[in-house]
Records
---
Amino acid sequence: MTTHLQATTTLNNGKAMPWFGIGVFKVEEGPELVDAVKAAVAHGYRSIDTAAIYDNERSVGQAIHEALQETGLSREDLFVTSKVWNADLGYEATLAAYETSLEKLGLDYLDLYLIHWPVAGKYKDAWRALEALYKAGRVKAIGVSNFQIHHLEDLMKDAEIKPMVNQVELHPRLSQQALRDFCAQHGIQIEAWSPLMQGQLLDNPVLQEIGARHGKSVAQVVLRWDLQHGIVTIPKSTKAHRIVENASVFDFELTSEEMARIDALNQNLRVGPDPDNFDF
C-alpha cells in the first residue's frame, strides 16, 4: 500500500516517480501559481506537472527555485514533468521545444518529458527526438500522453525505447481498464489527469457514502482509488488548504468492496477531448 506522500513507483527504466503530484493545467502565470507550487512543495509534494501549452512554465520554474531555496531541498528531490505541444511534433521542432521548456523553467533537465497528444503522422518523429534526448542524458524519463492502445502499438513498432509513462484522462467515470491492462502488460506506468473529473464527481452519492464511512471527502476517496489501482495521480489546485487536503489520502484504505463499487461507476465518459477525434 502507498503509505506516504513521497512514496514512488519505479518506471521501466529504473527511475523513481512519485505516486502523487500537483498539476497546473490552465493555471495562469503569476503569483497564484507560484504560491500554489511552493505550498505543495512545502507540504511534501515532490512531483510537479506542467506543459508547454499551459503557458505557465516560467511561473512553475520560479516557484521551483524559490521552493528549493526556502526548503533546503535540492533539484534532485523534485520530479518535474512537461510536454511537447502538437505544433512542435517534428524531430527538430521537438528538440527545440524541449530547450524552450528548459529555458522557461530555468532547469538543466526534466525528469519526464511527454508527447502531449497522438497527432497522426507526427508522433513518431517526435518520439525519435525524445529518444535522442533520453540517450544523451538530457531527460531522465520519456513518455506519452493521451495515447490509446492502437497509438501505443503503432509507436512501439518502430521505437527503440518503450514509453515509460502514459498520462491520460482517468477517473471513476472513465476508468480506462483495457488501456490500464495493456500498459501494465508492457511496463508502462499509467498517470491520471483530471482525476476528479473537473469537480463533476463531488456530488456522486456512492462516493459521498464511501467518504462518510472513512471521514474523508469525495476527492480524497477518488485519489485513494487511484493509488490503490497503481495509478499515478496529479490533482490540480491553487488553494493551499485544498493542496493539503488532496494529499491527506495515506491514512486510510478502501476495502475491496468499496473499490468495486467505485469501479462500477465507469461510463466511458470524458470531460476532455477524445484522442481519436480531437481537432488538433
---
Amino acid sequence: MERDCFQFVRKCHQCQIHSDLIHSPPLELHPMSAPWPFVTWGIDVIGPIDPKASNGHRFILVAIDYFTKWVEAVTFKSVTKKAVVDFIHSNIICRFGIPKIIITDNAMNLNSHLMKEVCEQFKIVHRHSTPYRPKANGAVEAANKNIKKILRKMVQGSRQWHEKLPFALMGYRTTVRTSVGATPYLLVYGTEAVIPAEVEIPSLRTIVEA
C-alpha cells in the first residue's frame, strides 16, 4: 500500500507542483511549553493574497493553539486593529476560554492599544516573535504554509478561495499532525470527525450507526 501511494504521488501533477520545497537543513527542535489545551495561541496574517477573493478579501487572520494544533482562520479585506481584537474575542476567548499567552509578530495591527487593553482585561501575557526570525512563532508559520498549500490545490487560481477556506480548515483539523501524533479534532473533542472519505467508503462506525 505504501509503495502504491508513492507511485501515485509521483504520477500526480498537482502533488509535484505543490509539494514542499525545503531549502534549509533540519534544525534541532525547541518545543515551547504548552501544558494544557488552549493555554498558548499564536496569531499571524496571511496576505495580501493575489488574486483577491470575489468578495474583495485579501488577507487571512490565522490563530493556532500550541498544544492541540487546532487552527482558527477568518478572511478580511484588511486586517484592522479592531478586526484582530474581535477575532480574539469571538474565535478564541468565547470559544475556547481565556488563554495564558498570545504570541504575535511585531505588526502594528497585532500590537495596538486595543490588543493591550484586551490582554490587560483578561490577564493575558502578550509575547512577540522577531520579524527577522519567524521560526520563533513556528507553529503558526507551519499552519500558514499548510493552509496556503491546501487552498492552492483546491482553488487552482479561482477567486472563490474564501469559500474553500472552511474545507481547508477541516482538512487541516482532521489530519494527523506529526508533532503530536494525533489529529487536532481528536485532541479538542475526544473523538474523530466523520470525514467525506467515510461517506464514500463507509467506515465501521458509520456502518454500525446506519
